[in-house]
Specification:
The complex is a heterodimer of chains A (230) and B (566). Chain A is of the alpha/beta class and 230 residues long. Chain A contains seven helices and ten strands. In chain A, the strands form two sheets. A six-stranded mixed β-sheet of chain A has the order 6-7-8-3-9-10, sandwiched between helices. In chain A, strands 2-1-4-5 form a four-stranded antiparallel β-sheet, with helices on one face. In chain A, helix 3 (104-115) packs across helix 4, helix 3 runs parallel beside helix 5 (154-166) and helix 5 (154-166) packs parallel to helix 6. Classes of the chains: A alpha/beta (230), B alpha+beta (566).
């Protein structure tokens, strides 16, 4: 049990569709262990993304807890939770979610900028830039660092998103359908990229509805009707 | 770091912010222009009111004037040496002015005659600065009887040359010259082509003390024409009219004859005798820049006017003499002294003085009386049942009041102050439109940026961090718009008269500032740094206010809500 980084217990979430409540999660329990590549699978609309958002403290559950190293993130102050999210969680979204006004390098540097004040940043800017360039080289984008997101292909954008997620060396990386918006070849490239990170010790939680992608994971859990199917 | 970075980036990339900046810019310029002009207008009124009156005015408020003014002047100097700097008596009355010679011949005007002691008047207010000829020929303006000067005045070095607007001299004085002079002047012109006299051959006065200037005709002597007549200073707008370019259409030359017809008045206010015409010469022109004064006032020697209006000491049937009268005493107080304090002390002194005159009560004894006893004595004076002084004198003296220059102009100053506040509020209300516009623009920007907000929050940005991006954005819009507004508004105010002149040149109907309506002939064109600072700070504040609600709204959403925003 000591290697559990993240533990979600009895997580419930209900959305209102107009006046009709939609129970998306109905008491989900998940443990994420250090260094594993965990795939969360399930049909569309079964609550996979919602679970991932709650695991990353991007959304608030109606009930239940999410603990990082035993600390409930939803009992922390908002500012502390934001800090934890900045330092310990990296997100990769299906639709990349890059900032369109920023170039590739600036997008990748953004997590570091968020975590630092003006003075701290001026002291560490060079190191941060070197690290960002290193990560971008690793994901094969060293030639595109000054390009804006709209000048990149879908696969390249997703690799920028992965590079951004890795910038602060998070304890776990949460990827929501990272290949869902890409063709098979590009998807395979992204998957290899994630596998490579995982092999280097990065803990990854991957949401996908694609069985082939899920097959590459160390462990799989399946959500059915808001519950984890044994 | 990301706050500053994203604020600057959004400023560079979001052109919609330019519209917000533009509205701040225009509103700041608009409010600053309105405030500066109104404030300058008010300041001008205050400055001129004080300058043309004096600090304290002792006034009877009726044309007959009041007696014992000279005794009271001495008494003030004796009793209040720490208050009174200088005192000058003034007589106000009305007369008909007729121009007897020159291009304005036979023009008649109703005028307000102000009898002043020129030196004394200059010691209590700034009237002397308004004199036209005296500015160019210092020390030459006097009320002393003199003939008309006709030969050239040689100017001492350094004397400023009269502006081209006085060219009327060259036209109108030519006929007034004696025959030998034109030939002599032609010779002089040939010999001394660069002499100031050649450029300005009509010299305005003979009243020049040694060292200031002298006349030089072909005989080496001053040239005069006509009999000596007392001088009269005429308000610039009494006879002259202004042209479209703002300059005066001059029609008289210094020394030309004017007839002033006055109505002498008894102490009871009845006409003492038939109207008295008095031939005078134009000694100078006064331009106080307060149109209401310059269009009606003429100034003559105090003693002369006093005599002409039968306000000087006259012998009664019983052989006793009446007391000479004046309409006002203008008092200049010591520097740094509060006018209200001075007024209270002079008021008290006047009461003691009157009681001394009426009842022969020494000041110490009067001070010891109860309020009721004092009130009874005052009533006795007002109703004229006194024995130690002429009852008519007592009635006039009882009507005398003491005012500060601000009290005197209070109604007008208050009205302008209220007008200033009203107009500024009106323009501030218009500026609310700018705040709403900024709010709408920022709301649009935040709506457009909702997904970005979700991304930034998913990277760990705090609520305050997200809000501060948009607040900084609003502040930047306010700062840039505010600086541009202050700069443009200041430039506009500085050149406001030139702009008006240009518009009037294009079309005379575009002259918006009428001196007849607005008192001053030029639009005030000074921006106070403090006013500019206040408007600037308000602009930044309102811009941030406009951005605040969208910014707070953006900060409060959960990241996932913002990421899902379509």
């Amino acid at each position: 049990m000591s290697n559990v980084l993240l533990r979600a217990q009895d997580v419930h979430k209900t959305y209102l569709l107009g006046k009709v409540p939609l129970r998306v999660l109905r008491g989900v329990n998940v443990d994420v262990r250090a260094g594993e590549l965990l795939a969360v699978t399930g049909a569309s609309g079964c609550g996979k993304s919602t679970l991932l958002h709650i695991l990353g403290a991007l959304d608030l559950p109606d009930k239940g807890s999410v603990r990082y190293d035993g600390q409930d993130v939803f009992r922390m102050s908002a500012a502390r939770r934001d800090g934890v999210r900045n330092r310990e969680v990296g997100f990769v979204f299906q639709f990349y979610h890059l900032l369109p006004e920023l170039n590739v390098l600036e997008n990748v540097l953004m997590p570091q900028m968020v975590g630092m004040g003006v003075f701290a940043w001026s002291g560490r800017r060079r190191d941060a830039r070197a690290r960002a360039e290193d990560i971008l080289t690793r994901v094969g984008l060293s030639e595109r660092i000054f390009h804006r997101p709209n000048e990149l292909s879908g696969g390249e954008r997703q690799r920028v998103a992965i590079a951004r997620a890795m910038m602060n060396e998070p304890r776990f990386l949460l990827a929501d359908e990272p290949t869902g918006n890409l063709d098979a070849k590009m998807g395979q490239g992204i998957l290899e990229c994630l596998r490579s990170l995982n092999e280097n010790g990065q803990t990854i939680v991957l949401v996908t509805h694609d069985p082939n992608i899920a097959a590459a994971a160390d462990r799989r859990i399946q959500l059915v009707d808001g519950r984890i199917e044994a | 770091m990301y706050k500053l970075f994203l604020t600057l980036r959004y400023l560079r990339r979001k052109w919609i912010a330019v519209f917000a900046m533009l509205s701040v810019w225009l509103c700041v310029a608009m409010v600053l222009i309105v405030f500066s002009v109104m404030d300058g207008f008010l300041e001008n009124i205050k400055q001129h009111s004080r300058g043309l009156l004096s600090d304290i005015i002792v006034d009877v408020g009726t044309l007959q004037g009041f007696p014992y003014y000279d005794d009271f002047t001495k008494y003030m100097h004796e009793q209040l040496p720490d208050v009174v700097e200088s005192v000058s008596p003034v007589i106000y009355n009305y007369a008909i002015l007729r121009v007897k010679t020159g291009r304005a011949e036979n023009i008649t005007k109703p005028v307000r005659v102000v009898g002043i002691d020129l030196a004394g008047y200059a010691s209590v207010n700034t009237f002397h600065d308004s004199l036209y000829y005296d500015k160019y020929y210092p020390g030459t303006t006097t009320f002393a009887p003199a003939p008309m000067p006709i030969a050239g005045l040689k100017l001492p070095p350094g004397t400023p040359e009269m502006p081209a607007t006085t060219n009327a001299f060259a036209d109108s004085a030519e006929y007034a010259l004696p025959d030998p002079y034109p030939q002599a002047f032609a010779r002089f012109k040939a010999d001394h082509p660069d002499d100031p006299i050649v450029k300005n051959p009509k010299r305005p006065s003979v009243h020049s003390p040694d060292g200031v200037g002298y006349f030089e005709n072909n005989f080496g002597q001053p040239g005069y024409e006509g009999k000596p007549l007392p001088g009269l200073i005429v308000g610039m707008d009494v006879i002259y009219s202004r042209k479209e370019d703002g300059e005066y259409e001059r029609a008289m030359v210094r020394g030309e004859e004017i007839v002033l017809t006055m109505l002498p008045m008894t102490r009871k206010g009845t006409l003492a005798e038939d109207p008295v015409p008095l031939a005078m010469r134009l000694a100078d022109e006064s331009r106080t820049r307060v149109y209401q004064i310059d269009e009606i006032c003429v100034y003559a020697d105090f003693k002369l006017i006093q005599h002409m209006l039968s306000m000087d000491a006259l012998q009664r049937v019983d052989g006793t003499m009446t007391k000479p009268r004046a309409t006002q005493l203008l008092v200049r107080i010591r520097d740094g002294l509060d006018a209200r304090v001075a007024k209270a002390r002079i008021e008290k002194l006047w009461e003691e003085f009157c009681m001394g005159v009426f009842y022969d009560i020494p000041p110490q004894k009067y001070r010891a009386l109860t309020d009721a006893e004092r009130a009874q004595l005052r009533r006795g004076a007002r109703e004229g049942w006194l024995t130690t002084v002429d009852p008519e004198d007592a009635i006039l003296m009882s009507a005398v009041g003491v005012e500060t220059w601000e009290d005197r102009q209070r109604g007008f100053i208050d009205a302008v102050e209220k007008e200033k506040v009203l107009v500024t509020i009106l323009f501030l209300i218009i500026s609310v439109v700018a705040v709403v516009l900024i709010g709408v623009i920022f709301h649009m920007i935040v709506m457009q940026k909702t997904r970005d907000i979700g991304i930034i929050k998913s990277l760990g940005a705090t609520r305050w961090g997200v809000a501060s991006i948009f607040l900084s954005y609003g502040a930047a819009v306010g700062i840039v718009g505010g600086i541009l507004g202050v700069v443009c508004g200041s430039i506009f105010v500085y050149y406001i008269n030139d702009i008006q002149d240009l518009l009037a040149h294009l079309n005379p109907n575009l002259r918006v500032w009428s001196p007849e309506v607005y008192t001053f002939d030029r639009i005030p064109n000074e921006v106070k740094p403090m006013a500019a600072l206040v408007v600037f700070v308000a602009a930044v504040g309102t811009s941030m206010l406009g951005a605040a609600w969208p910014a707070i709204k953006a900060a409060r959403v959960w990241p996932v809500q913002a990421l899902r925003y379509e």
